[in-house]
From TrEMBL:
Peptidase M24 domain segment(s): 153-389
Boundaries of every Creatinase N-terminal domain copy: 16-137
SUPFAM superfamilies documented for this protein: Creatinase/aminopeptidase, Creatinase/prolidase N-terminal domain
Protein name (record): Peptidase M24
InterPro entries xref list: Creatin/AminoP/Spt16_N, Creatinase/aminopeptidase-like, Creatinase_N, Pept_M24, Peptidase_M24B
CDD domains (alphabetical): APP_MetAP
The organism of origin for this protein: Solidesulfovibrio fructosivorans JJ]
Length: 406
């Protein structure tokens, strides 16, 4: 006999299913339900990391079909209908038998399937036409319940303790990025970090970015402003053994912390020396980023539009005459200021042009104003905030300045 390590509360699951159905009615009213394929989205809706397909009808009983691990799903999820299946061709009769037939027009989580599997699904569900359903999942996950917020708040507190209190005591100038990575790992694991950092496209990140000096401007394939050399071209994350944090140089750590699946995002900049020795260009760049974060965080209230918050940030930077370097140098420059966060690091919405759907209380977002300085590296901040009536409540610490390590 086995017991689940955690079982999603039934009322929590019911609330998530209702939010997803409401969002589906908004983005795809013609669809009779939603087919969900990614394990992350299935976990959100059912509480189990299932290998299979979830059919969420617009009304009626959801059906979780598992290729493998049905027994684990029964332990972890309060969902009433969990069945086994072998082929996409089994889905229609299984759902029919469960009393929740698949409808002729279905929304589908299109990002959750590869091209060849999508073609196979279409061939096994004759007479069914598909419309995009990803936006419904993103919108449902954006507003966090009290159950989720408790996890994220704990995660943020541990994240802040790790980067701001424990790590400065065990790193020093002369260490390589890889040595600093190992120290960071030790600190984070001692605080309960569970290892995996997930993205909505299915990518998983190893720890995050460890960038000493001009590594912070190294060409990056990651959709963020901080550059890094990484371990190797095959693993462009974490820190490079050949890059050393030198006296008088900056060190930028941009990483996530995860507890029970939920993630916070934070960047901390360190300086190898006394505060009085920090170069003026570093101080000016970092101060600008703190001003941008403060101004935008103050306006993280219900009803605020992400696109307008992004425009506010750009106006502050333009007024300071510091457009060059803001949010990255050259090809590393990105056109956003922040992003939603929860089970994935890069969740909806994005603080960027074109995102006009108003924020809601309980959403969690990471703000990450950064500034790249040629030959020196990357400075700036990133913190995870909760949207409240009083403005953004920072969940990852309340000190944002550069930490000096001698």
């Amino acid at each position: 006999m086995f017991e689940a390590l955690e079982r999603l509360p039934e009322e929590e699951m019911a609330d998530r299913l209702a939010k997803c159905r409401a969002a589906l009615a908004k983005v795809a009213p013609e669809a009779g339900g939603l087919l969900v394929f990614s394990r992350l989205a299935i976990y959100y809706l059912t509480g189990t990391w299932a290998n299979g397909v979830l059919w969420l009808p617009a009304s009626g009983k959801p059906v979780l079909a598992c290729r493998k691990g049905k027994e684990r799903a029964l332990l972890e999820s309060p969902l009433q209908t969990i069945v086994g299946f072998r082929s996409y061709g089994d889905l229609m009769p299984l759902c029919e038998k469960a009393g929740s037939p698949i409808t002729s027009i279905c929304a589908a989580e299109q990002s959750g399937l590869s091209w060849n599997l999508a073609a196979l699904l279409s061939s096994r569900l004759p007479g069914v036409s598909f419309v995009p359903g990803d936006a419904a999942l993103a919108m449902a996950q954006a507003q966090k319940s009290a159950w989720e917020l408790a996890k994220i708040r704990l995660c943020g507190a541990r994240h802040a303790e790790g980067l701001m209190e424990r790590l400065p005591a065990v790193i020093q100038p002369g260490m390589s990025e890889r040595e600093i990575t190992r120290k960071c790992w030790d600190v984070f694991f001692d605080l309960g970090h569970q290892g995996q950092l997930r993205m909505t496209n299915g990518d998983e990140i190893f720890l995050g970015h460890i960038a000493a000096g001009d590594s912070g401007n190294y060409p990056s394939v990651f959709n963020g402003p901080v550059g890094l050399r990484g371990e190797h071209p095959a693993l462009p994350f974490s820190g490079y053994a050949g890059a050393v944090w030198k006296k008088g140089g900056v060190l930028t750590i941009d990483n996530g912390f995860t507890i029970e699946g939920y993630v916070t995002d934070k960047t901390q900049v360190y300086f190898a020396g006394k505060a009085s020795a920090i170069p003026d260009s570093v101080r000016r760049g970092h101060d600008l980023c703190m001003r941008v974060q403060q101004a935008v965080a103050k306006r993280l209230t219900p009803g605020a539009k992400p696109s307008e918050l992004y425009a506010l940030a750009l106006s502050i930077v333009a007024e300071a005459g510091m457009d060059v370097g803001f949010m990255g140098l050259d090809g590393n420059k990105v056109r956003f200021l922040g992003h939603g966060i929860g089970l994935a690091i890069d969740a909806w919405p994005v603080i960027a042009k074109g995102f006009d759907e108003p924020l809601e209380a309980g959403m969690t977002l990471a703000l990450e104003p950064k500034f790249g300085i040629p030959d020196i590296g990357m400075v700036g901040v990133e913190n995870t905030f909760e949207v409240t009536e009083q403005g953004g409540k920072c969940l990852t610490g309340d000190r944002y300045d550069i930490i000096c390590v001698e």
